[in-house]
Amino acid sequence: MPDIAGATPYVARAGYKEWDRCDLSYVRFDAGTTVAGVTTQNLCCSAEVDLCRAHLRHGLARALVVNAGNSNAFTGQRGKDAVDVIVGQVAAHLSCDVTEIFVSSTGVIGVPLPIDKAQAGLEAAFGAAPCSWADITHGIGTTDTFAKGATASAMVDGRKVQIVGIIKGSGMIAPDMATMLGYIFTDAAVDAAFLQQLLSAANKSSFSCITVDSDTSTSDTVLAFATGQAGNMQLTSYDDAGADAFAAALSDVCRQLAHLVVRDGEGAQKFIEIQVTGAASNDSARRVGLAIANSPLVKTAIAGEDANWGRVVMAVGKAGEPANRDTLSIRFGSTLVARNGLAVADYDEAPVARHLKQKEIEIGVDLGLGSGHATVWTCDLTHGYISINADYRS
Amino acid sequence: MPDIAGATPYVARAGYKEWDRCDLSYVRFDAGTTVAGVTTQNLCCSAEVDLCRAHLRHGLARALVVNAGNSNAFTGQRGKDAVDVIVGQVAAHLSCDVTEIFVSSTGVIGVPLPIDKAQAGLEAAFGAAPCSWADITHGIGTTDTFAKGATASAMVDGRKVQIVGIIKGSGMIAPDMATMLGYIFTDAAVDAAFLQQLLSAANKSSFSCITVDSDTSTSDTVLAFATGQAGNMQLTSYDDAGADAFAAALSDVCRQLAHLVVRDGEGAQKFIEIQVTGAASNDSARRVGLAIANSPLVKTAIAGEDANWGRVVMAVGKAGEPANRDTLSIRFGSTLVARNGLAVADYDEAPVARHLKQKEIEIGVDLGLGSGHATVWTCDLTHGYISINADYRS
Q1: What residue ranges define each of the domains in chain A, with the CATH number in brackets?
Q2: Which residue of B12, B13, B40, B102 has the fewest CB atoms within a 10 Å radius of its CB?
Q3: Which family does it belong to (chains A, B) (predicted)?
Q4: What is the predicted ipTM?
């Protein structure tokens, strides 16, 4: 992943858990960096999420701190105090306003973040040499089985701008209009309000269209930082030259990151794309897609490589969205298996069986009602998910 | 289970699957039997569900037919034709109106019910000797691991009336205002409209408060038949003598049946009761309870006997119902583990660990907002669920 001028990453060992790895990540931004973000809709969100929301209103960033191994969620005043200490320590170090500091934490819920470990970890990060983005992707992970990053570039105002995105997440994944812990860095100059508009739009067809297990985290956060050091005239609206190219590159990075989370879904062995068409609206199509993607019976059928499309019918019918049994069509891969409310007579099972043996599964559902459409992504439900989550100790 | 005067059960072998068992159940009612029912909210419901809804409007029943091994759902006109043949054959045999015949089918979705097997099975049932209710509970089962029935009695108008209930269901269980395949028989005399009122009320705190896997079946149906042969004056409203006693007995049978389904949830090793209090309304409490009950992370934590109450916090927050992180309290068994938004300092883990080793788990959640309350029931999520559903062939 390329360097981003104006964004300098560091990692350190705070020791939030009994492990031998860096678990505190710190990214320092040059003055003038703008920021946008989207956060979880979970009503029991962490103090970190509250802080990010408040600081996003100012639109400027000088630093990002990410703690791994403890989410600090549901820890009351002690949790809020810990975040305040971190923000104060970094703002003093950088001689900047506290509203320019952003903090996330991820890990077990309900255990206050140890303030002394956070303070010592930050001091170590301040004194460390800069690291790579790859180091940061490892530093923010928890149950992730691989580090996740994505890049894109765009020509804006005659300058090539770079975008780097990193993300963590594997379980408790159902962002629903919010996201995972994900961070996007660009050297493009982008007005904070416009960056927010672009990120919110990209989020809608990326992070908000994935699910691993239907469980929405209390800490989900995606932040995008634009250092402005590529030298382009600052983007302020879609009318600016290069805005469309930048928006496409940003959406590309968001989609790549979202897919990486699904591919690393707890216990996942298959990546499933669900394309819903013919719905009453795009929002309705997305909700039908997520009902299919969240169905344990659909996910176990795919794990078993079983073309049990009746379970897809069931999931469509339970979604609570407009649907008509007698106009519904379903395909696995490119093979239509049900059309207008009943099985396609004597459809060829061979290509369906071959498709289901692949790692990448495609399910198409046409509701036959309107022009609404959406694509959502999920993984299968396997013994691996049970092993990971019935053993994971709090 | 006691005999119900006026209701005579029979079983026969239709051979809907390659198995050596009775799979067609037939219950004949004497003239004058009233009927009420509740059915699935799944929009892709079966032709049988459509038929029951239409016939329930007439309020009278002479026969019930239940086919096991094939749900006949999503089979278009051929599925509807199969049901019409069954209804016609039974109505001709009994010389009654077709609207007095009720049919359910359960099993794989998307395969038309073989009409010839249904016809031959019915003829066998017509010629068979009456069987026991226990025979019927086996006859209607599919993936059930045990037969499920419940009984209650009540004094109405100086007469002892009997209620017998039978049910099948183990997976694809999230009735949400509807039910499983369940049948209730009573010799009480109850007006059809009042019976419907009583059944709908009982359903609301029984079948609608259970979930195994959040997946709502296309065939869910519960029907209640009242033969009237106990000799009581027909119940027509709550003002009638004995109506309260009968309502309590009916609710008792419904709750027993609902609990049996959860206890036989696919792969279940533990029975979990979730009590939600302090909600904005009773409906809101029920939805919060179901969000907890449907959370894969909560269900796997219980399977692992892990007091990971942070996952309960997460599930409350994602429910989309009024909730406030800082007034939330959680208990496992009788031990309060979190109060007003943070962990109870130094709570005694010993009784919590002991409680989680039991087969019957109780989780209490107080939202601290209002007086709304509800109790829902579910089971844990284990390797058994994955084994059953990743191998179950369509």
Answers
A1: 7-263 (3.60.70.12), 271-391 (3.10.20.340)
A2: B13
A3: Belongs to the ArgJ family.
A4: 0.82
